[in-house]
Write a structure and sequence with these properties.
Largest sheet: 3 strands, antiparallel
Number of strands: 3
Order of helices and strands: EEEHH
Organism: Klebsiella pneumoniae subsp. pneumoniae (strain HS11286)
Radius of gyration: 19 Å
Structural class: alpha+beta
Distance between the termini: 42 Å
Strand order of the largest sheet: 1-2-3
Number of domains: 1
Protein name: DUF2724 domain-containing protein
InterPro entries: Fil (IPR021221)
Shape: elongated
């Protein structure tokens, strides 16, 4: 079932709009990435 204007009813009865999920995804993809050197130092020092 759908509600119109792109809203979809999920299996749990909650309404879902794909645009919201895409925004979250794009925010994650465009976030500033940690350099490989920093990741290595964090791993060696035990930081998260």
């Amino acid at each position: 079932m759908h509600y119109g204007h792109g809203w979809i009813m999920g299996s749990d009865g909650q309404r879902w709009h794909p645009c919201s999920s895409q925004s979250e995804l794009l925010n994650g993809l465009t976030a500033k990435k940690v350099s490989a050197v920093k990741r290595l130092l964090n791993a060696l020092m035990g930081a998260k």
